[in-house]
Specification:
Blueprint (H helix, E strand, L loop, with lengths): L2 E8 L3 H12 L4 E4 L15 E2 L11 H17 L4 E11 L6 H14 L8 E3 L16 E12 L1 H14 L3 E3 L2 E9 L2 E8 L2 E12 L5 H6 L1 E2 L7 E11 L7 E5 L6 E7 L2 E5 L3 E3 L10 H14 L4 H4 L3 E12 L13 E4 L7 E5 L6 H11 L21
Parallel strand pairs: 1-2, 1-10, 2-7, 4-13, 8-11, 10-19
Antiparallel strand pairs: 3-6, 4-6, 5-6, 8-9, 9-10, 12-15, 12-16, 12-17, 13-14, 14-15, 18-19
Helix pairs in contact: 1-4, 1-8
Bound molecules: flavin-adenine dinucleotide.
Flavin-adenine dinucleotide binds next to helix 1, strand 8 and strand 17.
Length: 392
C-alpha cells in the first residue's frame, strides 16, 4: 500500500473542494480526485447565484434560506472579488400569479431571515424609472419590486476554494477516476485510475462528493452501502448576445408560472432555468431544443424590444443536474437541503453528499466534517474556514 490519507474525496465540484478545504484547515491530510476537470459538473452549470432563494419561502424551507443568507453575507466579506451584490427586479403585471402583497410579505420575511442586514433592503422602483429597466415591457405593468442577492462565477469560486485547500496542504489528482473502494475497520482502501495508471490508497474516510455521479460512486463501495432514493433534474440556461445593465430580472414564465432569471453575465445575458427529469449518463446532459425555445419565449415575452434580436443572438446553451430526493409531483416542491449520508452511525467510513446548493458549500462542508470527526485522528487545526479569504 503506497499512500495513506485522513480523507479521500471524490469529485472536485464545490462540495468536494469545500470538504478538502474544511478538512485541510482542521489539519487533516486530504487526497482529492477529479475525473475530468475542476468544476466540470453542476458547479459550472448553475445559475451562478449566491442567494437565500426567495422562491424556497413558498415551500417553507426557512432553515435553508436562513443558512444560505448567512453564507451569502460571509461570502460577500471573504470573497469580494468573486461574489457581489446585484439588484434583482420583480415586475408585477395584471396576469402575474404572485400579487404585490405576497411579494411584499415574502421580501419582508427574506429580509428578516437575512437578519435585516444592509443587503437585506428592498423596495419598489418608481413608475418614472420603469423605462430605464433594459427594455422591460411596461404594458400592463403594475409594480416593480427590487431587492438584492449575490452573483458569482461558479467555476471561478470552485477553483478559488480549491486553491485555498491546496494552500492548506490538500492534494488534487486530475484527471483521476474513482474505480471502487473496500471498507474495513481501519477505514477504506480506494482504487483509482490516474492518467493511465491504476493506483490505490488508504484513507480513514471516503467522502463521496461526485454530484450527479454520487449514486454510481456509492455503488462502487464494498460491502454494499445504502443509497437513498434520488433523481436527477436537468436545468438549462441560454446565453444571449444582448447585455443587461440594471441587474437581474426575476420573472414568472407566462406558460407555467415557474421562476426564470434573466441575468447580466460577462457582457451577455443568461436566461434560466428549466426543470426536467433526467435519466442516463450525467456527462451527456445538454439543453433540449424545447428548453431553449421555452427560455427564449420567456425572454421575448418580457423584453419585446429585444424580440427581433433574440433568435440570431443565441450564443450558447448548457444544462446541469440537480440531485433531489425522489418523490411524486413537481421537482419544485422537493427539498433543496443537502443530504449527508453515512455508511454507519458509529465511526463512519463513507460520507456521501447528495444535492444541495452552491451557496451553502462552506456550511455543508463544516457540518459534514463534524459528522465524520469520530473516525478521524486528532490534528492541530491550521485555520477556520469562516476566516479564510478567497481570491479570484
Ligand atoms: C441548473 C442549476 C442551477 C443551479 N443554480 C444554483 C444557484 O444559482 N445557486 C446555488 O446556490 N445553487 C445552484 N444550483 C445547485 C448547485 O449548482 C449544486 O448544488 C452544486 O454545484 C453541486 O456541486 P457538487 O460538488 O455536489 O457536484 P458537481 O459540481 O457535479 O461535482 C461533482 C464532481 O465529481 C466528479 N466525479 C464524478 N464521478 C467521479 C469519479 N468516479 N471519479 C472522480 N471524479 C468524479 C465530476 O466530474 C464532477 O466534477 C444549481 C444547480 C443546477 C443544476
Amino acid at each position: 500500500m503506497s499512500e495513506s490519507f485522513d480523507l479521500a474525496v471524490v469529485g472536485a465540484g464545490i462540495h468536494g473542494v469545500g470538504m478538502a478545504q474544511a478538512a485541510a484547515a482542521a489539519g487533516h491530510s486530504v487526497l482529492l480526485l477529479e475525473q475530468t476537470a475542476v468544476a466540470a459538473g453542476s458547479s459550472s452549470r448553475s445559475s451562478k447565484l449566491i442567494h437565500g432563494g426567495l422562491r424556497y419561502l413558498e415551500t417553507g424551507q426557512f432553515a435553508l434560506v436562513r443558512e444560505s443568507l448567512r453564507e451569502r453575507a460571509l461570502m460577500l466579506r471573504l470573497a469580494p472579488g468573486l461574489v457581489r451584490l446585484q439588484r434583482f427586479y420583480i415586475p408585477v403585471y395584471a396576469h402575474t400569479r404572485r400579487r404585490p402583497w405576497q411579494l411584499r410579505l415574502g421580501l419582508s420575511l427574506y429580509a428578516l431571515l437575512g437578519s435585516l442586514r444592509r443587503e437585506a433592503r428592498f423596495g419598489t422602483v418608481p413608475r418614472s424609472e420603469w423605462d430605464r429597466l433594459d427594455g422591460l415591457d411596461t404594458a400592463g405593468l403594475q409594480a416593480v419590486f427590487w431587492y438584492q442577492d449575490g452573483q458569482t462565477d461558479d467555476s471561478a469560486l470552485t477553483r478559488a476554494v480549491l486553491r485555498s485547500a491546496e494552500q492548506l496542504g490538500a492534494q488534487l489528482r486530475c484527471p483521476a477516476r474513482f474505480d471502487g473502494a473496500s471498507l474495513d475497520e481501519q477505514g477504506v482502501v480506494m482504487r483509482y485510475t490516474h492518467g493511465e495508471r491504476s493506483e490505490q490508497c488508504r484513507a480513514r474516510v471516503l467522502v463521496n462528493a461526485a454530484g450527479p455521479w454520487a449514486p454510481a460512486v456509492a455503488q462502487g463501495v464494498l460491502p454494499v452501502i445504502a443509497v437513498p432514493a434520488l433523481e436527477c433534474v436537468q436545468g438549462a440556461h441560454i446565453l444571449l448576445g444582448a447585455s443587461l445593465e440594471r441587474g437581474i430580472y426575476y420573472l414568472e414564465s407566462p406558460r407555467d408560472g415557474r421562476a426564470v432569471f434573466v441575468m447580466p453575465w460577462k457582457g451577455h445575458t443568461l436566461v434560466g432555468t428549466t426543470e426536467n427529469r433526467f435519466h442516463g449518463d450525467p456527462a451527456r446532459v445538454a439543453a433540449h431544443p424545447a428548453e431553449i425555445h421555452y427560455l427564449l419565449g420567456v425572454f421575448k415575452h418580457y423584453f419585446p424590444r429585444a424580440r427581433a434580436l433574440a433568435e440570431q443572438d443565441l450564443i450558447a446553451s448548457f444544462a446541469g443536474l440537480r440531485v433531489l430526493p425522489s418523490g411524486p409531483g413537481h421537482a419544485f416542491h422537493r427539498s433543496r437541503e443537502t443530504q449527508l449520508i453515512l455508511d454507519r452511525r458509529i465511526r463512519p467510513r463513507v460520507l456521501s453528499i447528495y444535492g444541495g446548493k452552491l451557496t451553502t458549500w462552506r456550511a455543508v462542508s463544516r457540518r459534514a466534517l463534524r459528522r465524520i470527526a469520530a473516525s478521524l485522528p486528532r490534528r492541530r487545526a491550521l485555520a477556520r474556514t469562516d476566516q479564510l479569504p478567497l481570491h479570484p
